[in-house]
Amino acid sequence: MIADKAGQVRVRASMQGAIDEVCVVVGEQLHAGQRLVVVEGDSALETMRAKNKSVVMEVHVKDDDEVAEHALLIVLREI
After folding, report:
1. How far apart are CA 41 and CA 14, in angstroms?
2. N or C: which end of the chain has fewer CB within 10 A?
3. CB burial class (10 A; 0-12, 13-18, 19+) of residue 63?
């Protein structure tokens, strides 16, 4: 997850699976290391976390959604 020139970070699924938990809402201010979303694959559970202080701009998934590898999950803006 790397910010673009506008400071936006697009969080994408690293594997196919189901959304176990969405941990944020639009407008929420986040600290570095805060949980964003948990994706459950065939044999793995991945917790994605904010790398830097940021604000949630968009949430594209909800609990129990099925997602493809590289699917857009959340958009953040680093602050």
Report:
1. 10
2. C
3. exposed
CA–CA gap between residue 10 and residue 28 (Å, rounded): 16
Q: Residue 24 half-sphere exposure, CB side, CA atoms within 13 Å?
A: 28
CA separation for the pair 58, 11 (Å, rounded) = 10
Residue-wise DSSP of 3-17: --TTSEEEEE-SSSE
Q: Report the predicted TM-score, pTM, of the whole model to 2 decimal places.
A: 0.91
Query: What is the tens place of the pLDDT at every residue in 12-27?
Result: 999 999 999 999 999 9
CA separation for the pair 62, 73 (Å, rounded): 9
Phi, psi (deg, nearest 5) at residue 66: -90, 135
Which residue type occupies 24?
V
Mean of pLDDT values over 25-50:
96
